Amino acid sequence: MTEESTPKVTKNSQVTIFLKHLHIDGQTLLLTGVFITLTLFFTFTVQKFFTPRSITSMAFQLPELGILSLAMMITILCGGINLSVNATSNLAAVVAGLFLTRMIPTEVDPNLLGWYVIGAFIIAILVGFLCGVLNGVMIGYIGVPPILATLATFTFFTGISTGLTKGVTVTGFPESVSIIGSKTIAGIPIPFIIFVVFTLLTYIILNGTPFGFKTRMIGTNPTAAEFSAVENRKVLLGVYVLSGILSAVTGILVMSRTMSAAYEYGTTTYVLLTILISVLAGVIPGFGKVIDIFIAVLILQVLSTGFHMLLTGVRGSSFFRDFAWGILLIIIFIVNYFVRGRTQND
Amino acid sequence: MSEPIIRVENISKRFGGVIALNEVSLSIFPGEICCLVGENGSGKSTLIKIISGVYAPDEGDIYLNNKLYKKLTPIDSIREGIQVIYQDFSLFPNLTVAENIAINHQLAHRKNLVNWQEVEKIAREGLQRINIELPLDELVENLSTADRQLIAIAKAILADARLIIMDEPTTALTQKEVIALFKVIIDLKERGISTLFVSHKLNEVREIAERTVIIRNGKKVLDQDARGIDIATMEYHMTGRRLDSSNIAFSPPGDMHTPLLKVENLSLRHGFVDVSFALRKNEVLGITGLLGSGRTELALALFGELPADSGRIFVQGKEVHINSIQQAVKNQIGYVPDDRIQQGLFLDQSINDNIIISVIDRLVTRIGLIKSKTKNEVSNQWIQRMAIKTPSGKLPVKTLSGGNQQRVVLAKWLATMPKILILNGPTVGVDVGSKAEIHELIRQLANEGIGIILISDDIPELFQTCHRILLMRTGRIVEEYQRNDIDEQELYQRLIFSENQAKAVSED
Amino acid sequence: MFGRFRVKKLIRSNEFVIFLILLFLSLTIGAINPAFFTISTLFDTLRSSIVFLILAYGLLPIVIAGGIDISFVAIAATTSYATHMFLLKQGYDGGILLYYLIAGGAGILAGLLNAFLVTQFKLPIFDVSLAMFTMWYGFNLFFVGATANFSLPKGTVGFYNIFVFTAQDPNMGETGLHITVLLALGLGLIIWWFLKYTTLGRGVYAIGGNREVAVRSGFNVRLIFFVIFGIMGLFSAIAGVTQAFLSRYFNPVIFITQPLDVLAAIILGGAAITGGSGSIIGTTLGVLVIQVINRALILTGIPVEWQRFVVGVILILFTSIPALRNLRAKRMGHTSQLTQSD
C-alpha cells in the first residue's frame, strides 16, 4: 500500500500524524470549527451575545448538562448506555434535600449548619454510588442488556424519588446550599469550575489509568477482553458507579442552583440530550474523547443562548434551538460521512 | 468442448490506490472442479465477489453462459446459476433451516409472497439431494458448524446451480467433515454441476482439483491441469519463493522430574474425563483430536475460562487452583485462542493497545497512572521482536494480515513472560508463508524455555513443531506418540477413524 | 408425537412466557381487588392500549431489522398536531378520515426521510432518529404551535362515542369498547401478514439476523428500509390522530416521554434488542402487560406516589430473571457454546 502512495497522500498523512501528536483528530477539528462558526455568527447577529454578562450566564447554565453527558459518555464507551443518569441525579438531590429539610434540628448552632450542608452533598454522592452499584450489578454481573437494565432503574429511581417526596418539590434549604450554584471565584462561575474539574478527572481516568484503558477495550470486544484476563464484571461495575457519581454531582448542582429538588426535573429530555451530545461528539463503544464532549456541550449552549437572544420576543425561541440542533446533527453526520468516505479512498 | 458457464476477461479492480485484481481472465466449464488458490489478500475474494455481482470490476468483461453483463447484480448472477458459499456460509442464524434453504429460490423467482408449505417442500427436496436429514423448523443458530455447511450446500444446489463457488469451505471443518464435503463435490460433478473451490489449504487442493488456478498479488500466475502440480510448486507460485521446512532443528526438552505443568485426573462435565499429562520445559506438546474430543475444553480449563470439576493441576511442582483466567495468568499461563477475531483481538484498536492489554496493570506508577512512555516502549519492543510488519504501532490491528495479527496475539501473551503457552489452532486462517514463520517462532519460544501446548488437527503442523503428540477421543487422552514413533499418514488415519472405533467400543 | 413437539415448542416460546406473566398479573390483581375483573376495567385497559399498540406495531419491523428508533413519537406529535392546525385554519368541518389521510401521508414522508438518511449516508438508525426526535418536536413547537388545542371540527365530535359494542357494568353503568380497537387490530393483522407472508417481511428478519448476508442473498435492503420506515411514519401518524380524538384535544408534545416505554414493551414481548426476532403477538402481550400494571396499581391500593416505584421493581425483576436464566444456562452448558467455533 505504502509503495503506491502518491506524494500528495504522504503530505496529508504527515499532517495527520502531526495532529495525532496534539491528540486532535477530524472530529475535534470539525466540532471546534462548528463552535467557532456559531460563536462568530451570533457575535455578529446578536448585539449582546459576546459580552461578559452573557458568557457568564452561559457558564452557569452548561455544567449540569455537561457533567451528565460525561456520565452518559463513559457508559457508551464500554459498550452500554445509562438511561438512568437523570433519575439518579434527581434521586440524589431528593435524598440530600430531604436530609436538609427534615434532619436538621430546629435550634441548630449556625456554625454547624455548614457541616450539615456538606453532609447532604456527601449523602447525594453516596446515593449516586448506590444507584451505580445497582446498574453495574444488573449489567456486569447478571448480564441484563444495558438499555433494558437502565430503563428499569430509571423507573425505579424516579419511583423512589416520587414516593419519598409524595410528588412534591422539596424546598427550604439553608442559604449556604446555594453557594455552589450561584457564586463565582475570580469571576468564573463555580459550576463551571466544577465542570472543568470533572472533565479533567474523567479525562485522566479514561486516558491515564488501566481502568479507562480496559473500559475502551471492553467496549470494542468484550469477549477478547475476557480472554485477555480483564475482569469485565468489575470494570463494568466501576463504569456504572462512576456514571452514578457523576450524575449525583449534577444533582448537587441542580439543587444548589434551583434551591429545590424534584423527582421530575428534566425528565427524559435531559437523558436524550446527553445521548445527543455523545453522538455529536462521535462517542461509540471503544472510542470517544472527553474533549469532544466538552466542545459539544459548548456548542449546545451557544446554540441555545444564541437563538434565545436572536429570537427575543418570538414565541418559543427555545424550541427553535431544538429544531436547529436536530438539523445541525444531521449536517455533521453527513459531513462526517463524506470525510470518512474520502479518507477511505486515500 | 461445451460453452463455459462463466468467462471473465481481463478483469481489473482497484480499491483506492490498491490494485486488487490486475487483468485476470478465467473460464469455467460445466462439470469441472476448479481450484482457485492464493494467499490471503491475493485477490481471490475480490474475484469471487465480482463473479457473483457484489463488486463491479473497473475494467474487463464478464460473460455468464455466453451472455455479456455490463452491470452484474447478485440477483443476475444467481439467475445464471452461480451460487457462492461464503466462508461464513451466509446463513441467517435467526431463521429456520427450511427458510434458510428456500430463501434463494424465493428471491430468484421474484416471489413477493411466501407460501410456507412450498418453503418446506423445497427445503426437504434440498436436503434429500445431498442425502441428509435435519429438523426443518430448527433455528440455524442451534446447529453445529458442520450442519450449517450442509445447509449452505443444500441451499446452493437448489437454486438450479450450474456453478458452486466455495470460499474457504473447510476452515471450520474437521478432517472427517472435509472428506464428506469432497464426496458431495464429486457427486455434483457427476450431475454436471461445476465447483470453484477456493482455498489455501494445499493438501486439500491437491486431493480435489481437476484444474488449478493460482493468483498472486492480483495476477493470475498459473492455470493448468491439476495433475502434475505438487504442493511445493503450488507454494512457489503462491508465495513467489521457495519454502524449506525439511531441516527443522528440535532442541531436547527439559527433564521429566520437575515438569512445568502436571495435570492429574482432570475432569469437566460435558468436556473431558480423567485427563493426566505433564509438560516439560522447552517442550512443544501437541494435542489433537476431532471436534468434540474435548481438546478445546481442556485448553479452556487450564486457562481458567471453564474451570475443571475435579482433578489437580501442578505448576512447577506446586499445586495450583485455576478457577479464573486471572489465576491462570498469575500462574504464568497464556492462551492463544482458535477464534482470533472474536476472542483474541480488538480489531479496531491499535496494535500497541492489543499487545499491552495483558500487562497494563504492571505499567502503572504508584498512584495508579499508566506510564505512557514505558507503555510505548513495551509495545514497540514486541512489534520488533515479533517482526510485525506495520508502519506504525498506532494503526488498528485490522490493517494487518492474518499472520501478523496472530503475532500480535502471541506478543500479548509473551509480554506477560509466561512459562506455559497454550496455542489453539495457531495457524488457522494464516497464509502459507506466515504459517512457516509462526512454526519457526513456536520452536524458537520452546528453545527459550517456554513449555508449549499446541492444539491442532493440522497434522503436518503437529509434525513440524511438536516433540510429543497426545490424541484425544471423546474426552479422554487415548494415545501418546513421540514425534519419531509415527508418521503423518498413520496419525491421520488414527485421528479420523478413531471416532468409528470409539462408537463401536461404546456400543459393545 | 408431532403434536407433542409443537406443544413443547409453544411452551418454550417467548409469547407463552409473557402470556403467563399477563395471566399471573391479572389473577394477583384480581385477588387483591375483584373490581379488576369487571367489563369496564377490561374496556378501559383496552382503550388505553390502543394507541400504544399502534405505535408498537409501527416500530416492531424496525426493531426486528436491528434498529432502535425514537423519532416515531415526534412524527406522531408533529403530523397529528400540524394536520389539525392546518385544517382548523381552513375552517374544516368534516369528518375524521381527512385527518388520517393528511397526517398519514406526512408521516410516510417523515419516515422515508429517516430511511433516506440511514441508507444514503450509512448512518446508525438510532443516531438519525435522535436528531429527528429533537428536530420534529422543535419544529412542531416553534413553527406550528406550543399549546394544546381543544377545538375539534364538528364532523369529528361524535367519534368519541362510537363503540364496537357496549355492555352493562354493574358498578359503572353502560360502558363501551371504542371503535378504534378495531383499527389497532386491523393494523396489527397487516403487520403480522407483512412480516410472515411477504418476501419483504422475511427480508426484515433477514436483515436483523445478518445485514451483510441479506445484501449478498439478493434482498433489496434499501427498499426494505424505505418500506419499514414508511410503515413506522404512517402508523405513528395514525396513533397521533387517534390519541387526539380519544382524548378530545391535540397536544404538540404528545408521547414525548414515551418512546422508550414503547420500545420496552416490544422487548418485553420477546423481540431481541439486537434484532432478528420479535412477533406481533408478543408485542401485543408486551403492551398489555404494561397497561395492566399501570391500571392495576390504581386498583391494588398502593399509594399513588409509590406506584412508579412498584413498576420499577417489577421491571427490574422482569429484565433480570431471563438474564439470570441465561447466565445459569451458560454455566451449565457452556462447553457446547464455546466450542462451536472449534
Give a written overview of the molecule.
Chain A has helices spanning 7-21, 26-45, 52-77, 85-103, 110-142, 146-165, 178-182, 190-208, 210-220, 222-227, 232-258, 269-280, 290-310, 317-345, and strands spanning 170-171, 184-185, 188-189, 260-261. With 346 residues, chain A is mainly alpha-helical. Chain A has a two-stranded antiparallel ribbon. In chain A, strands 2-3 form a two-stranded antiparallel ribbon. In chain A, helix 5 (110-142) runs antiparallel to helix 6. Mean pLDDT of chain A is 87; it is low at 1-12 and 342-346. Chain B is α/β, with parallel strands linked by helices and 508 residues long. A six-stranded mixed β-sheet of chain B has the order 6-7-8-3-9-10, with helices on both faces. A six-stranded mixed β-sheet of chain B has the order 16-17-18-13-19-20, sandwiched between helices. Chain B starts with 5 loop residues before the first strand and ends with a helix. In chain C, a hairpin with a 3-residue loop joins strand 1 and strand 2 (173-178). In chain C, helix 4 crosses helix 5 (97-120). Residues 333-342 of chain C have low confidence and may be disordered. Classes of the chains: A mainly alpha (346), B alpha/beta (508), C mainly alpha (342). At the A-C interface, helix 6, helix 12 and helix 14 of A face helix 6, helix 11 and helix 13 of C.
The greatest interface between two protein chains, and residues involved on each side, is: A-C, 48 and 49 residues
Task: State the share of residues found in helices of chain B, binned by percent.
Answer: 25-40%
The largest sheet of chain B has its strands arranged as 6-7-8-3-9-10
The quaternary organization reads as heterotrimer
Cα distance spanning the termini of chain C = 34 Å
* Widest sheet, order of strands of chain C: 1-2
Order of helices and strands of chain C: HHHHHHEEHHHHHHHH
Helix fraction of chain C, binned, reads over 70%
The low-confidence runs of chain C, each spanning 5 or more residues with pLDDT under 50, are 333-342
Per the principal axes of the C-alpha atoms, what is the gross shape of chain C?
globular
Please count the beta strands of chain C (DSSP E, at least 2 residues each). Answer: 2
The amount of beta strand of chain B, in percent, is 15-25%
Q: Tell me about the biggest sheet of chain B?
A: 6 strands, mixed
Number of helices of chain B: 17
What is the SS-derived class of chain C? mainly alpha
Beta-sheet strand percentage of chain C?
Answer: under 5%
